[in-house]
Amino acid sequence: MLINMKQMLEIAKENRFAVGAFNVADSNFLRVVIEAAEENDAPAIIAVHPTELDFTKDEFFQYAVSRAKNSSVPFVIHMDHGDSLASIMRAVHCGFSSVMIDGSLLPFEENIAITKEIVDVCHKIGVSVEGELGTIGNTGTSVEGGVSEVIYTRPEDAEEFIEKTGIDTLAVAIGTAHGIYPKDIKPELKMDVLQEIKDKVEIPLVLHGGSANPDEEIAKAVQIGIQKVNISSDYKYAFYKKCREILSTTELWDPNAIYPECIDAAKAVVKQKMELFNSIGQAAVYRKENVQPWRQEQN
């Protein structure tokens, strides 16, 4: 079942769990996320960065949308870090039910302006919108980028930003970074900042850069009030680690001989994340609440 992010995360917030947003870069990763969700009866978000959409091409998402719509568990197909109205509209035309506009590197008022522009367009057609305040770090190991110095989200800014933009969800900066952390760096998330934000706002909160952080910190963030956690590097790393092992010891060249074990390795990581987020079995809640499939509304 395909739903939008507002539908997905309102129920997560009510029932105190988070939903994983897993970046998908090809059919193998789409299969990993959908099959892991179905095997564990867990809701999931299929996240797509603009560079990933460039790589997969628009036509690929005709299949992705169809596969999600025909599943027994709820999915959102989400544009991750959209950087312009053009990239957002490309996702909308591909059938995405949710988008993120990332104006976090802009001055505060400019971030408000571009985010509100996207909200005004997307809400007319039932597409949810995520905004971002503060900045996510960059480990140098991810296509999603980031900055060298994290700017933490100011709780008072979050309140004003939500009021002036009308966003459905807010990505907050509490110390995470995109990619896998170097061995000499140990991330420490500022839970006090998250708690202050949670105390001031009502909409669901999002944590970017969820890979490679200590499990106990992610679990604590979910307990405080994170409803969506973005995961990309951790499960892709597991996939390609297994792939390298196979290719280093064999002369295989058929994808159907190489990739099954890689898919299983990635699915194991996705399942572990779902356990961490307390989302396993939670697809039943959406059925119990009789959540209706999302249909893009027309002007």
Cross-sheet strand order for the largest sheet: 1-2-3-4-5-7-9-10
Instruction: Please count the helical segments.
Output: 12
The ordered H/E elements are HEHEHHEHEHEEHEEHEHEHHH
Q: How far is it from the N-terminal to the C-terminal residue, by CA? A: 23 Å
Number of strands: 10
- Rg over C-alpha atoms, rounded to the nearest angstrom: 18 Å
Quickly give the structural class: alpha/beta
Largest sheet: 8 strands, parallel, barrel
Helix content, binned percent? 40-55%
Which spans have pLDDT < 50 for at least 5 consecutive residues? Answer: 137-148, 178-182
How much β-strand is present in the residues? 15-25%
Pfam family, one: F_bP_aldolase
Protein name: Ketose-bisphosphate aldolase
InterPro entries: Aldolase_TIM (IPR013785), Class_II_FBP_aldolase (IPR050246), FBA_II (IPR000771)
Cofactor: Zn(2+)
Can you walk me through this structure?
Helix 8 packs parallel to helix 9 and helix 10 (233-249) runs antiparallel to helix 11 (255-277). It is built from 12 helices and 10 strands. It has helices spanning 5-15, 27-39, 50-56, 60-69, 85-93, 108-122, 155-165, 191-200, 215-224, 233-249, 255-277, 283-288; strands at 19-23, 44-48, 75-82, 98-101, 128-133, 137-138, 169-172, 177-178, 205-207, 226-231. The protein is globular, with a radius of gyration of 18 Å. The protein is 47% helix and 15% strand. Strands 1-2-3-4-5-7-9-10 form an 8-stranded parallel β-barrel, surrounded by 10 helices. Strands 6-8 form a two-stranded parallel sheet. It is an alpha/beta fold and 299 residues long.
